[in-house]
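User:
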Amino acid sequence: MIDIAAEELRFSLAGYVIENPDYSFGVSVPPSGSALEVPPQAQFLHGVAGFQAVDIYLTDFGADLSSSTPIASLAYPQMSPLLTLDAGDNYQLRVTPQGNSATVLFDSGLTTIALNTRVYVPLVKYFGDGGDEVSLLQVQRSSSPFVNASQPSEIEIVNLIADESSIDVYLGGLANAPTLSDVDFETRSPLSSAAEGMLNLAVDITPFNNNVDAIYQVAVNVFPGSKATLYLGGLASDEAQNDLNTVVGTLAFTDDRPVPDLDRIVLVHGSGSLGPVDVYLLGPGETTADKQASFVSLVLGNKGTVFIAPGDYNLVITRAGNDTELHGPEILTLSAGTTLEIVLSDTAGGGLPLNVDTVSTPLTPR
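Assistant: Predicted structure:
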């Protein structure tokens, strides 16, 4: 048994920090119903094991760090006191090695601190593009990045539109040249690097060498330091439904964080002809009658993620709710520390039989 004094016990669960029963996230509404104006508060945590001690600066935007004082100096796993701040919209958070203000490890860019907020700011490992090793998150009821952080983002397109042999991708309008050109059916485009900071991208998809007839349009938000994948499934012209366009886009953000002793399985349904399906990952000797499907009743545009132990599995795909097999059993061998992507699409030109593509990506811990 471990004897821990109550006042020393802290939890960091889903971004909530509990130091004692009186600590809570959020603020109380005055019984009088008067306007609430409570100064903002923040608490910082060094959450990266094995990483150097850091100084965290909260300054006016663009201030010289050499003449600034850190708001917190932390080594792993230290946490700052709960700090009361001044509300404002011209702040910048930066992280440096302790005692070395010239080397910036993370830069939030321009950020706002609002009244009536209490935020938990952990230092975490960074897994995005660029050379950063760490990042700060802001956590209230859920975690989010700093939208102006100086970390680049990337976007790629997976073409599962079965009746378009090749497509062009425009980021920012059809008036410009395509950002990604000639993306063949059942292929993944190269990664297109976007600018740093939060981006709202207008995505237009056209047949190859056609900048007039958009077959899919969407606006997507791409966060700093993220890698976004836009899966495009369905049919550009469904003759069975009077040439109805059924193209559906599924936006996913790649998570490259390894999970100890588990592999990540990502499944995307991009088939316009298939209908709802159940997807099973069966161990040796198991049948669909022996266990519940890992993915249940997925339809066009759905994406799901599960975590399972490394090993050998049989991939079986059935009609949703019954045992009519559409694919498999296909043997999958999962190595430790892997993300396996399973993508469903029509056959070239549209319709069945079902195409099932798998892509295995090893994850390297940082």
